[in-house]
Amino acid sequence: MREDLELLWELQKIDLDLKNINVERDRFPKEIKKLDEKQSLEKERIHKEKERLESLEKERKQKEKYLLGEQDKIKRSEGRMTEVKTNKEYQALLSEIESFKVTIGRVEEEILVVMDEIDELKKQLSKREKDIAITLEKIEAEKRNIQEKMEQDEVVWNEKSQRKDILATQVESNLFKLYNMLREKRQGIGMVSVKHETCQGCFVNVPPQMFIEVQKNNSLIRCPNCNRILYWDGNGEKA
Q: Mapping DSSP to helix (H, G, I), strand (E, B) and coil, where does residue 167 land?
């Protein structure tokens, strides 16, 4: 029985390791998805700022084009000054030119405002791109670490699964069936150690005499409370 219990204890530890790997198998893809979403969000922010910059550049060019048109109108109006024949026509032409100049002054101010906004946005964008480059690199590093851990988990999974298959053939069949039944009913834990006279599965004290018998590891003993198989693994206490 001692050998069977030792083999079963090793099997239980392997099953817990495999259970933990399964948890990670479920968790890692979700973590990668979150990182991908974070990457997309950072890239989208940069994209929107670049779009805003392009929009401002387009607005500046449109205003500059409009400004040239107004300046051209002034030249044409000034060219007609020699053609006027009456004072009324002359005053009307002066009023027209003044109106163009007012418009030009306003548009020039608008262009300056847009140019200031462009300069400020370029500075912000430059800093943002540097910050995001660092952030994206960190995200990529996290994804690489997760991928490496997933690959390592697969190696460990295969090794432990092979060992589990071997142990399953070595443990006495009825004991193995009992263990599996308990494991299914007890969140994957069918066998637990006893420490300080306490079952480490349900953390209820076991009777003193039972604790003494458990430490011998030569008979099948189950926790009176949770029914799990009890095992003495040494754990620093004197037997």
A: helix
